Amino acid sequence: MNKRPVLGIVIPCYNEGEVLPVTAPVFADELDRLIAIGKVAEGSFILFVDDGSQDDTWQIICDLSRSNNAIKGIMQSRNRGQQSALLAGLLEAREMSDIVITTDCDGQNELAAMERMIDEYMAGSEIVYGVRRDRKSDSFFKRHSSSLFYKFVRLMGAEIIYNHADYRLVSRRVLDEFRDFEEVNIFLRGLFPLVGFKSSKVEYDVTKRVAGKTKYSTGKMMSFALDGITSFSIKPVRAFTILGFVVSIISIIGIIWTIVDYFCGNTVSGYASLMCVVCFMAGIQLLGIGVLGEYIGKIYMEVKGRPRFIIAERTENLENKDIEV
Ligand code: UDP
Ligand code: MG
Description:
The protein is of the alpha/beta class and 325 residues long. Helix content is 49%, strand content 14%.
C-alpha cells in the first residue's frame, strides 16, 4: 500500500451557484497541493455531482471542467437528495480511483482533514470517518437535535459513528463490496460501518457556510433522521409489540377489577379516568400503525427496485457512457 493512490473527491451540489465559484478553486488548489507533496498520484480528480439544481450550478461545473481537467462533473436527471447524489458520485468515481473522499461543496468541512485521512489510509485503514470536533458553528436547534438523533439511532440498534456525517474516505476495495448493498433507501453513514474492514477516525472542524443557505430544512432533516432510524433497525416495531403486550396485561387486570367492583356495588362514575385511558390507547395505537406504515413504505420502495440515481449528463472530460441506472 505504499504506492501513491489516485484520489477522487466527490462533492454533491444542489443549487450552489453562489458557493461553487468560491469553493471550487479552493478544492482544486488543495488537490494540486496534495499531488505536489506526493500524497496522491497524478490523475487525481474532483467529481462534482449536480443533484438536479434549478440554478446555474451545472453550467459552472461545465466551465470549471473545461478550464481544469482535474475537475469533472455528472448531473442527476432531477433532485434526488444528497445521499443519492453521493451514491452516484461514489460509483462513478470508483472506476477511476484508488480512494474516494466525499465532502460538501459549501466549504464548511475543514479541508486539511483530507490529508490526515489519506495518512490514515496509507497506515492501513480502508475507511476513514471524519468526526466533527465540536458543533459550535451550528444553531442551538441543530446542535441539540443532531446529538439527540445520534443517541436515538444508536439506542435503536444501528451502528453509526457519533458526530460523523458524510465527510469520509473509502478505498476502492470498500466500494467494490459496497456496490452489492443494493437497497433503495440509502443512508450512507449507516451503510459503511456494515461493509466492515479496518477503519479509523479523523477529527475536523466545521465553519460557517461561505455563501448560500443550507439545503436541509427542518422537515428534510426530520425525514432524513427517520430514514436513518428505520433503515437499520426493526426495534421501533418490536417496542410496539412489547408495549401492546404490557397494555394487554394491564387491561386484563383492569377488567377483573371492574367486574369485582361491579359486584361490590361500587358503580361510581369514572368519566375522567375513562377518557384518559381511551385517549392514551388511541394515541398509542395510531403511533404504532404509523411506525408499521413507515416500514411497509420502505418495503414498498425496495420491492419496486427503482433506480437509485439517474445520470443525465457528464462533463466532456468524462468518457461518454450510456445513461446508467
Ligand atoms: N445537497 C444535495 N442535494 C440536496 C441537498 C443538499 O446534493 O437535495 C448537497 C449540498 O449542495 C451540500 C451538501 O449536500 O453540498 C450538504 O448540504 P447543506 O450544506 O445544505 O447541509 P448542512 O451542512 O446545512 O447540513
Ligand atoms: Mg453545509
